[in-house]
What does this fold into?
Amino acid sequence: MLEAGCADDWAPPDEALALGDEDLGAVSLAAHEVVLPARVVGVLADLRAQMAEQGTYVSDRRWVKTVWLLRVAAAAEGRAEVGLWDLLLLPACVAPDAERQAEVADWLHARLGVREAYAPPRLTRVVQAFQAQLETEQNANDLDYDESGRLRFSPSEAGTEKAEELAGEIGDAKGGAAALRMSYSRRRRYGPAHIAARTAQIDDLLARIAAYAEELEAERASLAATRARTLWLDDALLARVDAHLAATAALIAELAERARDARRGFENLPRLSAEESTRYADVPEPVAHEPLA
It folds into this structure.
């Protein structure tokens, strides 16, 4: 077995391609000047906490050496700062075996280029909050008053059925089947202030979603540029990240359309008359949802 380990054919690279001491020194000097952006530091800190929570110990010394590798990777490609995609080099640097390296890789693929505040699950819950509020307001009923301001009474279908059942049981001695019932059948109506407040809040949400969609497109453009020039990263890794970003963008676009549907629903709520609107100009409390900051 030991002999076989030396049997593989190998030839040194052409001398013109070999890195000499002068080349290595130049890369080292350039690496010292490479900037480590706060965004990259944030991901490193989150990964460090994630690994500690899972019981995987990585020494401070190894983190420092890993960051030096990231600086060298950037310098070798002529860049002035460590990029987000350089972090795809981390699994082999901080995880001790294939299984945990795969876990780190999965964590990075799901995280890089995606802001947690706008993750599809969270954004879905935000849109659902508006949809639930719309359904509540569409189905809300008011007590129906007549012109004199008194509650209007009329036999309702459900009330008649219940009265007939009751009359059958007691022989209708009191005329139960003909009893008048309070009507709750009038749908609640809303004034311009209410509807404007609802649509304005959704407009703010749509603006945030649109800005995030542009951010995702910028991330994909950055990733494409990295794929074209990288000396260090495997293209299959970058393709996997791009697929995740594309899927996220598609989900965000779908949620934006759902938000627009909710906006149209609020616009089409039953409206108060012009005279009633002057008396009921209350602005509702905003729809509560998770923050998107």
